[in-house]
Write a structure and sequence with these properties.
about 250 residues, alpha+beta
């Protein structure tokens, strides 16, 4: 499977609000980067800074080798394509949608509030030993262009392989409150199985989950009952459930 057929660095750049031309301006990188790098050495995860304006890593802690088995220089020298290349194929297909959700929320937030946002999601990465590690990635944007685009992103990745996520990716967005605590303000779950359903199938599934009959669903969606029955059959086939109840339960577990 070709990485560029799924998600390219150019797409990520545009999703972040930039044009096709990479910015070459120099940004002041806070001295905290070195401090973060030093603190991460004995952690159960790794930290780093990513420059969205240039689409490159500024720094990444050496402790990444303890978690994934790769030297930090692999990310610094080989860039975004290397990091995308070790994402689990199923998760990679969802990564574009996840970033669209992140930046959609980012740009809907007033510019003066954007530095207070913290984005978190789980993702599976292929370690150097070919095993997949589940990582919880948390980040916030620390520097911005004059027109509000994100430049420097601080991220922290922790190994949460022992937790079960049922092959779904959970995105949460928190905002720092006046009291100094992060408050949940957005949550979305992404799954490969849910993506296979059409918009109409998702509507039928949700109404069926609420207990409506095919006749009632047909009336609510202005469809003939045979069309609803056809959607139900497709849902059952796509989810691998033996019936609609099993299909609903399978989606609910994702």
């Amino acid at each position: 499977m070709n990485l560029l057929d799924i998600l390219s660095t150019g797409e990520l750049y545009r999703i972040a609000g930039y044009s096709n031309k990479l910015h070459k301006e120099e940004f002041n990188v806070p001295g905290l980067i070195n401090e973060v790098d030093g603190q991460a050495q004995n952690a159960t995860g790794y930290d780093g800074v990513f420059n969205w304006a240039r689409m490159q890593y500024v720094t990444i802690s050496a402790s990444v080798k303890k978690i994934l088995g790769y030297e930090a220089v692999s990310f610094l020298s080989r860039g975004v394509n290397f990091s995308l290349g070790i994402v689990h194929p199923s998760d990679l297909e969802l990564l574009k949608e996840i970033h669209q959700a992140i930046f959609s929320y980012y740009y809907k937030t007033p510019a003066e509030q954007r530095a207070k946002l913290r984005f978190s999601y789980n993702i599976r990465l292929r370690a150097a030993d070919e095993n997949y590690i589940t990582i919880l990635r948390q980040s916030n944007f620390a520097n911005f262009t004059a027109d509000g685009k994100p430049t420097l992103e601080y991220f922290n990745c922790a190994d949460i392989t022992g937790f079960r996520f049922n092959n779904a990716i959970n995105l949460t967005i928190h905002k720092l409150s006046a009291a100094g605590t992060y408050v949940l303000c957005h949550e979305t779950e992404f799954s490969a199985l849910n993506q296979t359903l059409s918009k109409r199938e998702k509507e039928v599934l949700e109404l069926a989950r609420q207990g409506y009959t095919s006749k009632e669903i047909a009336a609510m969606l202005y469809l003939c009952i045979e069309t609803v029955k056809s959607h139900r059959k497709h849902i059952i086939a796509k989810t691998g459930g033996g019936n609609m109840v099993a299909a609903i339960n399978k989606i609910a577990r994702l």
